[in-house]
Amino acid sequence: MGRNNEKNIKKHNDKLHKTQAKAKQAEMLRKEKLKEIVKKFNENNKENNN
Q1: Rounded CA separation 14/1 (Å)
Q2: The total number of structural domains that make up the chain
Q3: HSE (CB half, 13 Å, CA atoms) of 12?
Q4: Selection from 5, 8, 28, 4 nearest residue 16 by Cα
Q5: For the region Disordered, what residue ranges are annotated (predicted)?
Q6: What residue numbers bound the domain in which 25 lies?
Q7: Cα separation, 17 vs 12, whole angstroms
Q8: C-alpha triplet 38, 44, 47: angle, nearest 5°
Q9: Structure confidence by residue, pLDDT tens digits, 9-26
């Protein structure tokens, strides 16, 4: 019995993919928040300049 059997490989890959998906989701969320902040800043800036 080796350590690299199908069950262990699948378990490891599932864990890896889960953490990668979580990181990707967090990055997308940060980008969305940043877009909202920039949008609000630009709106406020536009109002102040007029």
Answers
A1: 21
A2: 1
A3: 7
A4: 8
A5: 1-22
A6: 1-49
A7: 9
A8: 140
A9: 999 999 999 999 999 999
